[in-house]
Amino acid sequence: MKPAAAGAGSAGRKLLAWMAILLLAGVVIWLLAERNSRQYFLVVEDGLLSVKKGLLAPVGRQPFRTDDPQLLQAYAPFRPPPGAQVPAEQAFDDRAGLDQALYELLARWARDDIASQKPELLERGMGFVARAERLAGISAAQREDLKALRAESGFFEARALLDRGVEAIRQARERLRLAAQSSSTHAGDAGEALRSLEPVLEQLHQTARALAPAGTRRAEPAPAPAPAPGDAK
C-alpha cells in the first residue's frame, strides 16, 4: 500500500472513531436529560416545602407547573409545622413516589394536629388532610389510611361547623329580638320567628356542648322570653 493511501485510511478510521465517541456521548447526555426530566423533587427552601420538576437537561430543575387546579393545590409550596423533621431534599423517579412520600408527611402532621384538639392546630391539620386527598398516586394502603384520617378529622370539622352555626343563629336571635321589640311593621313576624327559633337554638346548643372537649363545656344562659308580637319597649 502506498504511504498516502495508508495515511488516508488511518485518518478515516480516526474520524469514524471520533464520530462514534461523539454519538455515544450524545446518547448518554440525552438519556441523562430524559431521566432528569421525569424526576420530581421535594425541596425545603426558605422554610417552605416545595415540589420541583427536572428539566430536559442532564441537571437542573424548576418549580412544578401545571394547568390542573387540583394538582396545583396539592403541590403548592407550604410551610411544615414548626420543629418538623423534613429532609432537605428528596428525589423521585415518578409522581407516584412523590405522592406517597408527601402523603406520609402530611398524614403524620395531620394526626399530630388533630390529636391536639387545639382549634388553630385542628384547622391546620384539616388543611393537611385536604391536601393529601388531592394526591392521585398514593398506595392502596395509604388510601385506607386516608379514609380513617378523614373520618377522624371529619368529627372535629363537623364540631367546628356546628359551633359556627350556633353562633350565627344566636346572632339571628338577637336581631329578631330587636325587631320584635320595636315598632317596625315586621315586629309581629320577628316575634313569631323568635318563638320558633328558641327551641331550635337550645337543641343545637345542647348538641354542640355534648361534642365540646372536656373542660370547655359550659351552660348556655337561659334565653329571655320571646316578646309577644307587636310588643315594643
Describe this protein's structure.
This protein is α+β, with helices and mostly antiparallel strands and 233 residues long. Among the domains are: 39-138, no CATH class; 158-211. It is built from six helices and four strands; from the N terminus they run H-E-E-E-H-E-H-H-H-H. The chain has helices at residues 3-37, 69-75, 95-116, 119-132, 140-180, 187-211, and strands spanning 40-45, 48-54, 61-63, 89-92. A hairpin with a 2-residue loop joins strand 1 (40-45) and strand 2. Helix 3 (95-116) runs antiparallel to helix 4 (119-132), helix 3 (95-116) crosses helix 5 (140-180) and helix 4 (119-132) crosses helix 5 (140-180). The protein is elongated. Residues 217-224 have low confidence and may be disordered.
